[in-house]
Amino acid sequence: MKLNKFNFDAQKIQKSIKDFDYRSLKKYTSPQAGNDLNAFLEKLPQHSGQTMLIIAGVAWASAGAVGLFTAVQLQKMAEIRIELEEADALKPIVPQIVDKAVSPNQVEEFADHAKDIYAGLDFGASGARITMTSKSLAAFGQFREAIAHVQNGGQGWRVSVDKLCVGRECERYPLSATLTINTVSVK
What we know:
By secondary structure, the protein is of the alpha+beta class. The protein has 6 helices and 7 strands. The two termini are 72 Å apart.
């Protein structure tokens, strides 16, 4: 039976384990082994050239420098992460303001009511939009008051001006305004 291009025979392995002399390992664990290692390192420059020792020293110094740099950078990153977590914890929860369109029925009711009050203006309602027009500049006072009335027309209304034209330069009517009415909700 072949495994990974090698023949493994369990009996041969067991025999080689039994035949192995564990007492030969004793010499590596004896007190003399430390002295032997020291003697080997002292004789190393004689057996290998100085160039090889310099290359090995540079390699070890480079590895040490890279290890030290990595350790310092990891420490800095850990400190920055802690600071970011503290900053996120201190960040207040900011409510979101959302515009919600007023119901078209409310806008139509307001437009019908405003027609009775401001006789010189024409009012139209389309969804959440109200349109005010006049064929004459003489109704400017009513026009101005009607815009203010829309601003204060309903509870919580937030009115934005889509179109406002006053004067002879206006396309069709000398006084015209289109206002969108929303309510504000906070999430």
